[in-house]
Amino acid sequence: MTPDTLDARAGHALAAAAEPGFAAFGTDPWWITLIKALVIFVFLMVCVILMIMADRKVMGRMQQRHGPNRFGPWGLLQSLADGVKLSLKEDLIPRKVDRVVYIAAPMISAIPAFMAFSVIPVGPEVTMFGVQTPLQLTDLPIAVLLVLATASIGVYGIVLAGWASQSPYPLLGGLRASAQVISYEIAMGLSFVAVFIYAGTLSTSEIVDAQRPIWFAVVLFPSFVIYLITMVGETNRLPFDLAEGEGELVGGFMTEYSSMKFLLFFLAEYVNMVTVAALSVTLFLGGYLAPPPITTFWAGANEGWWPVLWWLLKFLAVMFLFIWLRGSLPRVRYDQLMQLGWKLLIPVQLVWITAVAVIRVMRNEGAPPVALGAVILGFFVVTLAALAAWSRAADRRRAAEDAEHAERIRALREDPMHGGFPVPPMDAPHYGSSVPAEELRSARPAPTPPTDKREEVTGA
Amino acid sequence: MSIPWLTLAIALPALGALVVALLPRERAELGRRLTLGVTLATLLLVVAMAFNFDPSGPRFQFEEVIPWIPRFGVYYAVGVDGIALLLIVLSALLVPLVVLAAWRERDDNGGTPGAAGSADAERAGSGNGYFALILLLEAMMIGVFAAMDVFLFYVLFEAMLIPVYFMIGRYGRGAERRRAAVKFLLYSLFGGLLMLVAVIGVYALSARSGAGTFLWADLVGADGALAGLDPATARWLFLGFFIAFAIKAPMWPVHTWLPGAAGSSRPGTAVLLVGVLDKVGTYGMLRYCLELFPEAARWFVWPVVVLSLVSIVYGAVLAIGQSDMMRLIAYTSVSHFGFITLGIFAMTTQGQSGAALYMINHGFSTGALFLVAGFLIARHGTGAIADYQGVQKAAPLLAGTFLVAGLSSLALPGLSPFVSEFLVFVGTFAFHPVPAVIASVGVVLAALYILWMYQRTMTGPLPPALSRLRDLSGRELWAVGPLIAVIIAFGVYPKPMLDVINPAVEQTMQQVGVSDPAPALGHVDQAANGGEGASE
Amino acid sequence: MPHTALAAPVITTQPPQIDYALLAPLLVVFAAGVIGVLVEAFVPRPRRRAVQFTLAALALVAAFVLTVVRVALLPAGGAGLTVASASIAVDRPTLFFQGTILVMAIASLLLIAEHRHGESAFAAQAATVPGSEEERAHVLAGSQHTEVYPLVLFAVLGMLMFPASNDFLTMFIALEVMSLPLYLLCGLARRRRLFSQEAAVKYFLLGAFSSAFFLFGIAMVYGYAGSVNFAVIHDTVAAGGAGALPGGGPLLLLGIALVGVGLLFKVGAVPFHSWKPDVYQGAPTPITALMASGTLVAAFGALLRVFYVAFGGSVAEWRPMMWVVAVLTMVLAAVVAVTQRDIKRLLAYSSVVHAGFVLTAVVAASAEGLAGAMFYLAAYGFTTVGAFAVVTLVRVHEGGAESGDIASWAGLGRTSPVLAGSLALFLLAFAGIPLTSGFIGKFAVFEAAVSAGATPLVVVGVLSSAVTAFFYVRIIVLMFFAEPAEARPRVLRPGRLTGAVIGVGVVATLVLGVFPGPVLDRLSPAPGAGTAEAQSVPGGFATTADLFANR
Amino acid sequence: MDPMNYIVLAAIVFTIGAVGVLVRRNAIIVFMCVELMLNACNLAFVSFARMHGNIEGQVIAFFVMVVAAAEVVVGLAIIMQVFRTRRSASVDDANLLRH
Amino acid sequence: MELYAPIFVLGGIGAAFVVVSMIAGSLLGPKRYNRAKLQSYECGIDPTPQPVGGGRFTIKYYLTAMLFIVFDIEVIFLVPWAVHLDALGVFGLVAMVLFLVNVSIAYAYEWRRGGLEWE
């Protein structure tokens, strides 16, 4: 450990030696790297365009209509035309905005979205122009964290856009969007934990390798389901697209944006969809590995360029899921959204991770199958009991709410002032009364006037 | 070693203080009686101890040494030599008299009598508190003189401030008492803290070889822990102790707290303050400054002598200018303390014997003066000299005792202070004639301020306002009488005291490493016996 | 090779051995805090206070008992042990500091739990805006923050860990565990809530600022030594630097300075004291009592450990800095304190001055210094808790806010002699009058400093003592010698809990003042043993680390 | 790249944070500056860890993050409370406690 | 560093695209000034002032942010633990379970005291 080992000249060799298992990465000639990066970029752009198209077409089919069908064959060029149109629109910057932040926000949103894809493996090592190289731009010991990190940076774009617009709708939209994204980010992060336990690494290529025996979607099914839910929440897609819920918030944080900047937000959103879908394929669906039945009769399925096909198929399936969900589910309420994230996904995840860890460690330590079974059973029982308690509580709450409602109705009915009719009370809000409506509703008597307990509570 | 005399003498008033303090407010009368009883018992105990003291025995007697804080080498170590013994007797004697004098004093808290609120406050504050403090103070005074451990001495030296502080500030008189109390406390505390540094220094130096100690006996002497101290350090340490003692003494220029404190105290408090407490300062110089740091003491002789002379003259001159009796007496004390320090630092046997004796006698004379002045003030409610005239016509007994006390204060031959003042002069003259000559100015001035005060207050026509002035009551006579008796008795026959003092002084001299100048004056008690008007 | 080490971090398959018995007090307090949170969640509101108080009191007492028991677990000969991968040191100083902190915490807890007509010292509902209708509703409904108890437990946990930490990471965590609950607790005063909130913000911002300095200092030290373990740092300093970074001396110096800043802030030494008066004044008084006693003890414990163990080999480097800080602290704080008109601010400045006195012992860098500082802190802790307990009782009117203005305390000695007498005793102890614990403490620290050759520092200390005595005496004058003020404050009858605290304070102040021997003996090796080493400057200071025998 | 550069960068960032704390008046911004300082510390820790070749510094960085997070939670709660009361987050407005 | 370079290459391509398209967008689009166009999208309501200083974020959002931070930290600890669970064995499991229990207690507290209720 002498200082000259830290010398920059020695850095290259050291770095290669530094990360065992990453020998294949970071050694590409620069032009291969450039080619791969460009391909990814183009792939993302094409994906986005096609995805927007597919979104509209599939939705149309689901809703018994055609969808766009004017530009190009089957309307395939519709999105391209839309893009061109948007970019030719007048670029408005409202007078009161914070200009710098306003302009920077779409960039902050879009650029990280591109970067996340660089660690997604789409195939094993292939020979490209005579160079042996993996079909993955790069891999890191912390690759999955990179994806999460870029996703987090994207949130800044949303918040800043809302804030820079200096207008209530975008502000509220931005806040809601960021609250939602960060809420679901926790559940998402937790859903990865089980994967890490099984894979023992954060590197995407190694995670894919670890799924050779069996996909994690099978072994870690609850994690997979939760990831799918959070994936939708993360990308602000229906049924979780409250940030731009037109009915409430006009256009959400994008309300004040137009032309190319608007387009960039749009782009970022779809690129994020692509990324999370690709990540789900990588982490849970075996990445580029051929689906299990195929490998049994076709050994070459995981050789050469074939895996790209498997990857693409899985990826498209997940993308279709996005559209399918959008077409089938109604938008949830904001409080339902947050409650789902905080009160259901997170506790379930915590129990699930504990269960996975316990079972894993027990197996590592060679615990007898009986004990293992008992533990599994125990977790089942606990989960069921919790669920039962939860639903009981929910029932009780609902019953209590109903009772309260009924009581209110009854009070209204019996109020002689209203002649026994369920008319709105005269002191309800908007009736111009100075008495707040709350007082009537509360059945309790007003607090007794302060007599002996008078005290100065503040006072500086 | 049979009876722990000193511990008993400390514990008795301390317990008494606790009991009196815990008495309910309504039992004020019981508290007073109890206090008087305890102080008299202490006096008896101390006197009995004094009779057990063997002047020809070892220097320190009745020694008790018990470890207190082993970590710092601190001991509960008590013991007395002749000087300390006499000072303890003085304290034990003065305290019952003060209690008697304070018997009927009302609390003077500035409230007008009759107003309901202040009467209430008066009742709440008066009574047992003052007496408990007196008892506490007595315990501490005896302890401080008996201490044979530097740390113990320091602790009591500082702790004594608190009861006095309350006695002045809480139970004093006049509007200025609060300021006076604070001034007193801060001056003393300042000095005490400087002394603390020196005390710590002593400990640190004693720890140079082996475990540190605070035992006085282990520190002094050629083979003591402080032997071979380098002179510069010793001088700094000396200064730390000396400043504290000088403030206490009180010595010019750090005397300024005294007139205010004495002027704002009750006469009883003033008696204890000037009569006993301030002696701790001079006692400390003699016992600690000189013996712990003999070399430094010799080095500082001239500065201290000069300061003493300034004190003597300055105190006397200011006394003359005073318009308040209590303040006047306080300033006379500044002058008298100048004599004491002069005697100590003359570094002659006579000088130091005289100084030690002076401490006792000054306690008697000033005590008597303060008490009588206090009786007068209690009658008329003011301390201003200008408010009195012709008192001797209305209260001859009072005027008489006042005269005797005053004369003793100016060291009239035949009264005890004369012996001590004479010895100091002789000792100083043997040391160097010039200071002695300057100091003699103080004697002249003393006559001036005492007699002039007497003339202004006691003689002349009796104004109508004073015509109903009562003479001394029986209780008051009992308070001041013993003092007058002692003054006269020891004025005529000082030998018993000198017998006790001399061995201690000789030891001290030996410790300091000085000896009397060549033409010795013969033995001091002969000089004193033949001293009736005799001169060199 | 550094990079390979990086790439394949050694994850030990050997699980660390943890001696839970030695950690028991920490675990008990922590567990009680966690259970306290559960109690908040699941126990019905009316019963919460009783449950929380019982839980907290039991935990603290149990922790104290365990601390005492642990003394027996230590090996003979003054050696100490380390626990949990050498991150916590259990030695005599640790146990003393922990015991002291626990006693202070128990006393403060009694003050915290004190209730009068259903109100405590804490806001009914901190989340409400002061002066709003909502707040009134909460006050009338008798809401109360029982979260206070778990928060206090967590703060105490941090305090217990702080002086016991044997590496900088643990120490930093302990610092934050201690501070974060305190930030919140500061803002919970029932009355004068604006003050209280302001105090919380100030404390928080300045505290976070200082802990950032502390952390950067740790980073520098880590850069120098390659480890944050105190023993390793000590050895590295002795060896003159770590292999990877030759010539890292400046890093060490910077590290010492910045770590010092962080610790001195917690201690409240000038120039890092500015938070103290504001925070002490604004915080609820029971919390102020906890901070003035427990936090101070913990912070000094940590300071001593860092500077004696980790930096024990570079005394010559840090000594001048401590000198300057100690002098500034004693002088400036004493001077500023004279002008204060509010009792809590005054006590805060007094706490700053006292920190300066303890620093003189730190400067000594010897066994005596350690023992002196320990004794001083214990003595001061008892006294200050008692003093703040008295402050809680003097109100502007029955059921009103505390009457902080010193002028309004005039004549208190007449109306409530016992209370005023107790306070006077505490003030005299602060002033260092003999026969109180304050004197022995002062003597111990000054003696250590003089032994180590810092006599000028002691002279400064003594002069500043004289100045501080002035303002303590002023309060006594007001209470005993002055006429009661027109708007005389209402003195509440001490409740059982507050009364107990004051009583303990009085007894401790007197007992430690008159019979300090047993305590002092337990604090240090035989007298004189460390002195010889301490005086052989500066090489002998390598032995200071051995004072904390945890290496 | 010479790892010492990272240390210099950390020092610069730390200084920026410290200056920010001292000159800015908005409590939230002051607080953000403190966080900046903590992150500078993390950078220093991680760089030193690499230089020394042990993972202690990285572990510390983890804990610092945790502490920073806890600080954010507590700090935001306190600042928000004051802010709701006073409708201002300026530390200059908080001056009730000056004597 | 070599492992990270490609990411920045991709990011650079993305950034180039974004910047070019934004510049192109502003150049290509028509510019027809109209006062009303530059108003914020708002039906006659004045645009809101800056949140920092004016401050109208609902407390709820701060609460969400705080909760997020707490749990995000939890994830930070879980990830390295998960990766090395096999090596850490029972000790790691117990430690993490204890940690999760503590976090869960805080979570339960938050839930019970209404911190997880929206609107």
UniProtKB/TrEMBL annotation, chain A:
The chain crosses the membrane at residues 30-54, 100-120, 140-161, 182-202, 214-232, 262-288, 308-328, 340-359, 371-390. It is an enzyme of class 7 (translocase). GO terms for molecular function: NADH dehydrogenase activity; oxidoreductase activity, acting on NAD(P)H, quinone or similar compound as acceptor; quinone binding. It is a multi-pass membrane protein. Keywords: Cell membrane, Membrane, NAD, Quinone, Translocase, Transmembrane, Transmembrane helix, Ubiquinone. Its EC number is 7.1.1.-. The keyword Membrane applies. GO terms for cellular component: plasma membrane. It catalyses: a quinone + NADH + 5 H(+)(in) = a quinol + NAD(+) + 4 H(+)(out). It comes from the Bacteria. One of its GO terms (biological process) is aerobic respiration. Residues 414-460 are annotated as: Disordered. Residues 451-460 have a biased composition (Basic and acidic residues). NDH-1 is composed of 14 different subunits. Subunits NuoA, H, J, K, L, M, N constitute the membrane sector of the complex. NDH-1 shuttles electrons from NADH, via FMN and iron-sulfur (Fe-S) centers, to quinones in the respiratory chain. The immediate electron acceptor for the enzyme in this species is believed to be ubiquinone. Couples the redox reaction to proton translocation (for every two electrons transferred, four hydrogen ions are translocated across the cytoplasmic membrane), and thus conserves the redox energy in a proton gradient. This subunit may bind ubiquinone. Belongs to the complex I subunit 1 family. This is NADH-quinone oxidoreductase subunit H. It comes from Marinitenerispora sediminis. The gene is nuoH.
TrEMBL record, chain B:
Pfam families: Proton_antipo_M (PF00361). GO terms for molecular function: NADH dehydrogenase (ubiquinone) activity; NADH dehydrogenase activity; ubiquinone binding. It is a multi-pass membrane protein. GO terms for biological process: ATP synthesis coupled electron transport; electron transport coupled proton transport. One of its GO terms (cellular component) is endomembrane system. It comes from the Bacteria. Residues 147-445 form the NADH:quinone oxidoreductase/Mrp antiporter transmembrane domain. PANTHER family: NADH-UBIQUINONE OXIDOREDUCTASE CHAIN 4 (PTHR43507:SF1). The chain crosses the membrane at residues 6-23, 35-53, 73-103, 124-145, 151-172, 184-205, 211-229, 236-254, 300-321, 328-349, 355-377, 397-416, 436-454, 475-493. Its main location: membrane. It is found in: Endomembrane system; Membrane. The keyword NAD does not apply. Residues 517-536 are annotated as: Disordered. It comes from Marinitenerispora sediminis. The keyword Transmembrane helix applies. This is NADH-quinone oxidoreductase subunit M. Keywords: Membrane, Transmembrane, Transmembrane helix. Belongs to the complex I subunit 4 family.
UniProtKB/TrEMBL annotation, chain C:
The chain crosses the membrane at residues 20-43, 55-75, 95-113, 148-165, 171-189, 201-225, 251-275, 287-308, 320-339, 346-367, 373-396, 417-437, 457-482, 494-515. GO terms for biological process: ATP synthesis coupled electron transport. It catalyses: a quinone + NADH + 5 H(+)(in) = a quinol + NAD(+) + 4 H(+)(out). GO terms for molecular function: NADH dehydrogenase (quinone) (non-electrogenic) activity; NADH dehydrogenase (ubiquinone) activity; quinone binding. It is found in: Cell membrane; Endomembrane system; Membrane. Residues 165-468 form the NADH:quinone oxidoreductase/Mrp antiporter transmembrane domain. The keyword NADP does not apply. Keywords: Cell membrane, Membrane, NAD, Quinone, Translocase, Transmembrane, Transmembrane helix, Transport. It is a multi-pass membrane protein. GO terms for cellular component: endomembrane system; plasma membrane. NCBIfam families: NDH_I_N (TIGR01770), PRK05777.1-4 (NF004441). NDH-1 shuttles electrons from NADH, via FMN and iron-sulfur (Fe-S) centers, to quinones in the respiratory chain. The immediate electron acceptor for the enzyme in this species is believed to be a menaquinone. Couples the redox reaction to proton translocation (for every two electrons transferred, four hydrogen ions are translocated across the cytoplasmic membrane), and thus conserves the redox energy in a proton gradient. Belongs to the complex I subunit 2 family. This is NADH-quinone oxidoreductase subunit N. It comes from Marinitenerispora sediminis.
Automatic annotation (TrEMBL), chain D:
Its EC number is 7.1.1.-. InterPro entries: NADH_UbQ_OxRdtase_chain4L/K, NUOK/Mnh_C1-like. One of its GO terms (molecular function) is quinone binding. GO terms for cellular component: NADH dehydrogenase complex; plasma membrane. It is a multi-pass membrane protein. Keywords: Cell membrane, Membrane, NAD, Quinone, Translocase, Transmembrane, Transmembrane helix, Transport. It is an enzyme of class 7 (translocase). The chain crosses the membrane at residues 6-23, 28-48, 60-80. The keyword Cell inner membrane does not apply. It comes from the Bacteria. It is found in: Cell membrane; Membrane. The keyword Membrane applies. Pfam families: Oxidored_q2. It catalyses: a quinone + NADH + 5 H(+)(in) = a quinol + NAD(+) + 4 H(+)(out). GO terms for biological process: ATP synthesis coupled electron transport. Belongs to the complex I subunit 4L family. NDH-1 shuttles electrons from NADH, via FMN and iron-sulfur (Fe-S) centers, to quinones in the respiratory chain. The immediate electron acceptor for the enzyme in this species is believed to be a menaquinone. Couples the redox reaction to proton translocation (for every two electrons transferred, four hydrogen ions are translocated across the cytoplasmic membrane), and thus conserves the redox energy in a proton gradient. NDH-1 is composed of 14 different subunits. Subunits NuoA, H, J, K, L, M, N constitute the membrane sector of the complex. This is NADH-quinone oxidoreductase subunit K. It comes from Marinitenerispora sediminis. The lineage of its organism: Bacteria, Bacillati, Actinomycetota, Actinomycetes, Streptosporangiales. The gene is nuoK.
